[in-house]
Amino acid sequence: MGIRILPPEVVARIAAGEVVTSPAAVVKELVENALDAGATRVEIEIRRGGIDFIRVKDDGVGISAAEVRLAFQRHATSKLSGLADLGRIVTLGFRGEALAAIAQAADVTLISRTRSDPAGRYIRVAGGNVLEEGSRPAAPGTVVTVRNLFAHLPARRRFLRDPRVEAAEVGQVVGRFALAYPEIEFKFLSEGRVRLQTAGDGQLRSAAAEVWGDSVARQLIEVGRVVEPGRLAVAGLVGPPTLHRPTRNELAIFVNRRWVQNRRLYAALEAAYVGIIPAGRHPVGVINLLLDPAEVDVNVHPAKAEVRFVYESEVLTAVRQAVRDALKAQGYVPDLELAGVGGRDGAQLAFGLESARAHPEGSGRLPRLRAIGQFEGKFILAEGPDGLYVFDQHVVHERVLYDAFRRALAAGQVETQGLLDPAPVELTPQETPLLAEASARARLKAAGFAFEAFGPDAVLVRGVPALFAGAADPATLFKEAVAALSAEDAAGGSWEHRLAARLACRRAVKAGDPLTERDMQDLIDRLESAELVSTCPHGRHIFRRLPSQYLASAFGRT
Ligand code: ADP
Ligand code: MG
Fold this sequence. Notes:
By secondary structure, this protein is an alpha+beta fold. Helix content is about 30%, strand content about 25%. The protein is built from 17 helices and 27 strands. The chain has an eight-stranded mixed beta sheet. Strand 25 (about 450-455) and strand 26 (about 460-465) form a beta hairpin. Helix 14 runs antiparallel to helix 15 (about 495-505). Adenosine-5'-diphosphate binds near residues 37, 79 and 95.
């Protein structure tokens, strides 16, 4: 298709905005043109971060002598003809604006030759004006040279950063092209030195080795998922969870080989790592989404960096699952996984077991549960109407004791168990003043402790709360209670809360304590009648639920 000026109705539909904002933006547009021209080799050279000099050379189809001048007109393109094409863009460019905009902002020369033309055509355009045009010997392909970017536009020149920063950004852009097009040979030079050179062997891993280094490339895991042939597929390489970075600089997502910035896409990819990569860190990888062009809109951003999907949630799910499956195949993902991880609750559902907090009944009551057995001496497994429940035996017991004690305390009915052998307890210099107050002594008595003074800094304990008797020796229990009197107690909250939490923790079964089936059922039954079941007094989870639907779908029984 020849170059034509787009009709006004198409121009009106094209996302407006500036494309030539930096050397990296110029390089991006010129490399896109080379790729659209079917190049197999693309060489990029810059000097002083691209501010002084940018040259992009390709071996693509070239521009015919008759069209070279037209290519610099605004809205002149060979890639789009009517409105219909706008809904199915298959090229990187389509706006017909890049060359015109670059020639407005800098001094541009272009030499191009098609395979059928006997000689090349040369043109020099600066500040939007054609200064020279003529015939030149040239190899097939196109060479565009951009000099003195923004020299005549002081407002924009002011936004240029240090040449090293600009050069680094150009390097990022070229690196992304190298990852998106492993079958193309890219060579990038800055200040006369080769900074990147790819083999163009079609192997994504070898392109990744050039861009990120051998050691990263060797560790990358293959991702591949075809949702529907010709319509939606995900392919690429991602790092293991052990490879993580403080930024997303080594994470690139392409849609039909166009680099995109869509935040939700990156979030979907990273959701596959939830729970297996440290929070706040980012994985490494390159993902290419292959999508029916009719189902993606690239005409939403002047630099074409944002895209919109017709079926966004399907696309996001495909990315997350493709990556998750790849990680799982390498053994990086725990077996228990909830379909739907990665949504807004992704972090909370990290390992796929629904937590009490996320329970549909909120902090309400538990359904009827049947204890099935003990696991690892730490957990109680129970069957419920809506799934498999896993309880932490220490935490569940602590909660039961805590609630019972708080209820008795509130009702003024804490039972005391008298000691056959009253226990003398020496008080530390910190404890003595806590006990000096009559109100403090009254609190301890209400809590079930019976005691009397025993010299200036000791007490004789004659009874302890029956609920906690046997948890520890009477002196230890008494000292726990005194510690709860202190407002600085780490448990925080009211005195009643601090006391109940401390004593319950002492009395509760520990990890490793064997439990009979009856003990377990008893614990769960008592929890069922507790009013607030979601967390232990310290805020830890009491149980997690593996929903029935998840199990059904995991085994293909949906
Ligand atoms: P667009 O890429 O959106 O069409 P550009 O201004 O970037 O607009 O380019 C205008 C036209 O010039 C292109 O449509 C293409 O026909 C031609 N062109 C530009 N660069 C090249 C190149 N490197 N090789 C072949 N043709 C090119
Ligand atoms: Mg273009």
